[in-house]
Amino acid sequence: MKAVIIDDERLARTELKHLLEQHTDTIDVIGEAVNAKEGIEAIEKQKPDVIFLDIQMPEMNGFEMLKELDEIPKVIFITAYDEHAIEAFKINALDYLLKPVDPERLKEAVEKLSANKDEEFESKVDTNRKERKLTVNDHVFIKDGEKCYYPKLADVRYFESQGNYVKVYFDKHHPMILRSLNALEERLDGEDFFRANRKYIINLHWIRNIENWFNGGLKVFFTDEEAVEISRRQAIRFKDIMSI
Question: What is the topology classification, in CATH, of domain 2-115?
Answer without folding.
Answer: Rossmann fold (3.40.50)
